[in-house]
Amino acid sequence: MIELTHLSKVFGSVTALNDLTLTIPSGQIFGFLGHNGAGKSTTLKCLTSIIEPTSGSIKFDGLELKDNRQAIKQRIGYVPDTPDLFLQLTANEYWNLIASAYSLTDSQMTEQLSRLTQLFDISDKGDETIESFSHGMRQKVIVIGALLSNPDIWILDEPLQGLDPQAAYDLKELMKTHAAQGKTVIFSTHALEVAQQLCDQLAILKAGKLIYTGSVDQLLAEAGDDSLETVYLKMAGRQSETSHNFGQNADTQQRNSENEGH
Hints:
By secondary structure, this protein is an alpha/beta fold.
């Protein structure tokens, strides 16, 4: 179980996350849904220790993230919001880097890599540079890297983006199997049909604030005859110009802050 309590993140004068409190149970697929700039990626980056919250706490099975960072990071597989990373490396070099970071044995590495590269139809591309790949192929490389250590907790930021239909289907099946084993899958999306198809529970964010948490079924039951799309747009739809600029400014300031840290 993961607990976020009064979590906030401020970039300069912009509040990207505003007092977020929710619980993510184990054994479920938990989705973060919202427009661009809603705070989804910021939340996931806080969970993975990529950025530090301005205030609030995050606990994994009762352990404070800030006090147990390394141990908790070893339990997490993370797909970032862009696959354009480590472009000068070959796919094999990237996967070896991940295997080293998670202290995988040679046999663990060989077994996992063989299974995943065959599943995602990329087993013959290991010696090619990531830079030479299409967006979808890069996404496959990053997804395989995230799952390589068979971590308990998957944190996936728009993981289906760019994947071909077969790869998207296979990843969704892996997500379902992982959750069925009592483990945790957290992912972000702005695609309603994906949220409805996969999520046991979801959180809807708007301009950094939590506006709904619960199951899709509960959300639809409360909505009566409305479709999920109609319900969602009523809750998180077209924002005022001020709110729209808020989201864009938050994203811009976040990127600037992260670039300064590199």
